[in-house]
TrEMBL record:
Pfam families: B_lactamase-like_C, Lactamase_B. Residues 38-255 form the Metallo-beta-lactamase domain. The lineage of its organism: Bacteria, Pseudomonadati, Pseudomonadota, Gammaproteobacteria, Oceanospirillales. It comes from Alloalcanivorax venustensis ISO4. Gene3D superfamilies: Ribonuclease Z/Hydroxyacylglutathione hydrolase-like, Winged helix-like DNA-binding domain superfamily/Winged helix DNA-binding domain. This is Metallo-beta-lactamase domain-containing protein.
Length: 341
């Protein structure tokens, strides 16, 4: 199948270097220690310095690259402001450290900051107990459940330093950078209140994880909100982005290459989740199943304990969507939740 997207750049800049992708907008690429092995950050020219969008993973290696970037990518100019799109550690990870380096304020949405502080404050015991109760009800068996519960608060382990209390942004807010207006649009589903920034004058969208060119971001149900329906939240907010912006918008994603073709990509992402919902409903039609039973329907590869956590969150998300829209029913039996079409 032909890729409907158009890519104006065929590769990312080297770590610590920058590449201009639109007037006053520069691309940074930093490594990640995961299967998804990189993150894109965005530098916006801002007077005698920069506004930075997202910060990279919290690690010494990332800080070493940043120290090189202070002179190379930043040209010795200061960061005046840090905008964090959402709470995930590859986006917020260096916000505290960079804020200290430059005495720069951090800007986030209220919902992202609330979840950040809530997750960071939880004890290992609390996280383990929540995992055990939540995933146990959804069918995860003993050894796997022990592995998940035994992970403790991995969020705090990989995000040891929080940024200072941020200034808050909300849907519709205007961020002025070098005389340009960047309008705040909110994505949901992957994160509670994910910032996307749109410069209308030349149709540039910093999309974070909300719109990626090759994959769909993880949609997960957390133990903190077990009845959440992130699939509907994600697809509804994607359509709102599509309807507010031109098809030829230059999309600057957090992972993968910048691209044109926003409308086609949003349609593909919505189609993907509709297909996942249909597959899940078909499985529920065969017999009552748990979210754990659904995993091999939605995921065709073997999952380690780290992947299992995200896969279970996504499996529950699709079942919760089917439940919320009346396509399945749910019953509890022997302490586990079973879904039937």
């Amino acid at each position: 199948m032909t890729d409907p997207l158009r890519y104006p750049f065929d590769q990312a800049p080297e770590p610590g270097q920058r590449r201009e992708v639109a007037p006053g907008v520069h691309w940074l690429n930093f490594p990640l220690p995961f299967a998804l092995d990189h993150i894109n950050l965005w530098l916006l020219e801002d007077g005698d310095g920069w506004t930075l969008v997202d910060t990279g993973f919290s690690s010494r290696h990332t800080q070493e690259i940043w120290r090189t970037a202070f002179q190379d990518a930043l040209g010795g100019r200061p960061i005046h402001r840090i905008i964090v799109t959402h709470y995930h550690p590859d986006h917020i990870g260096q916000a505290g450290w960079l804020a200290r380096q430059f005495q720069a304020p951090v800007w986030m949405t209220r919902g992202e900051w609330a979840l950040t502080t809530q997750l960071h404050a939880a004890s290992d015991q609390e996280i383990g107990d929540n995992f055990r109760a939540f995933f146990g009800r959804h069918g995860v068996p003993g050894d796997d459940l022990d592995a998940l519960a035994g992970r403790g608060n991995t969020f705090r382990k990989i995000l040891p330093e929080l940024p200072p209390q941020p200034e808050t942004l909300a849907a519709g807010d205007a961020v002025t950078v070098n005389g340009d207006t960047w309008r705040v649009h909110i994505g949901r589903g992957h994160a509670p209140e994910h910032i996307c920034l749109y410069r209308e004058r030349d149709q540039v969208l910093i999309s974070g994880d909300q719109v990626l060119p090759k994959i769909s971001s993880n949609l997960t149900v957390r133990a903190l909100d077990p009845e959440d329906d992130p699939v509907t939240a994600f697809t509804d907010s994607l359509r709102a982005l599509r309807d507010a912006m031109d098809e030829d918008t230059l999309v600057l994603p957090a992972h993968g290459l910048p691209f044109h073709g926003l409308h086609a990509r949003v349609n593909d992402l919505c189609d993907h989740h509709r297909e996942q919902l249909d597959a899940a409903e078909d499985a529920c039609r065969q017999q009552p199943i748990t979210a754990h039973d659904l995993l091999p329907v939605l995921f065709k590869r073997k999952l380690d304990s780290h992947q299992l956590m995200f896969a279970m969150g996504e499996s529950i998300a699709h079942l919760n969507c089917l439940l919320a829209t009346g396509r399945v029913t749910r019953q509890e039996r022997d302490g586990r939740l079973y879904f039937s079409a």
